[in-house]
Amino acid sequence: MKIKFGPFKDRTPAEVLLESPNNYNPLCDTYNKLMAANDPKFARQNSVVANAIAEAGNLFMNGQLDKTSVNTYQKIIIWDGMRTPNVNKVNQKGLTEARTAKITFDMDPGNKEPYCIEIMNCMAPPVQGAQIGARLSQCEDKITLMMNFSEEAWYGFWKDTIEAKTSFGRLMENERIDYSDKNMWKPQQNQQYAQPNNVVQMQQGYSQYAAPYMGQGYR
Predict the structure, then answer these.
(1) Angle between helical axes of 24-36 and 43-61 (0-180°, round to 10)
(2) How many Å is the maximal CA-CA distance in the chain?
(3) What pLDDT does 213 receive?
(4) CB atoms within 10 A of CB 129
(5) Contacts of 2 (CB under 8 A, 6+ apart)
């Protein structure tokens, strides 16, 4: 994942550290800036870059970072989003429920399962004054689920998902029609209905609409 700002813009954390060991401390400063940022619009992207910096930094400190250990292939983000069901609902610590989901494709030809779905649930402080969003850098009780798919399994997964959605839609429509038929109002046999007392009788020769204007025609 490439860094999008600062002196190391358009370079991956591993490339920065391989270029010079002296870049370690400035790279740590970049990590701290990412973790301190609280703009919900960039929270997910900042978290991904910060994780990449932490991973490269750990390899560097353990003497395991070299050109052969760095994956030069990038992952394409197909979809990335965050949901906060109700920011007004918080626990005793002032944290609200937050969820993220990301779908990626690994361009490494050696990866036999290039598609990945990553789902994360956590509790995090809501963004003040906003209807949605949470500060994921301060999250707690984080639970992450990752699922990897081969090409064949990926298309099978979506085929099954679409078929299940279609089948569920048909089932709900049939239930709706059946409910409507059972609860439709029907008059009972031999039931007498009282006529209204205040029936206005129209006077003969009276029209409730104004007489149409016929005009003089064209001369």
Answers:
(1) 150
(2) 106
(3) 46
(4) 6
(5) 9, 10, 11, 12, 49, 74
What is the residue whose two structure tokens read 């490439």?
2
pLDDT attached to residue 206: 47
CA neighbours closer than 13 Å in the CB half-sphere of residue 74? 12
Q: Which two tokens stand for residue 216?
A: 């003089």
The amino acid at residue 95 is L
Q: How many CB atoms lie within 10 A of CB 61?
A: 11
Are 65 and 17 in contact by the 8 Å Cβ rule? The answer is yes
Residue with tokens 């401390």, as numbered in its chain: 25
User: Which pair of tokens denotes residue 94?
Assistant: 């002032």
pLDDT for 219: 44
Of 32, 37, 146, 139, nearest to 84 (Cα)?
Answer: 139
Tell me what pLDDT residue 184 has: 64
Q: What is the spatial order of strands in the sheet that 115-124 belongs to?
A: 75-83, 96-106, 115-124, 140-149
Spell out, as residue ranges, where the chain has pLDDT lower than 50.
Answer: 202, 205-209, 211-215, 217-219
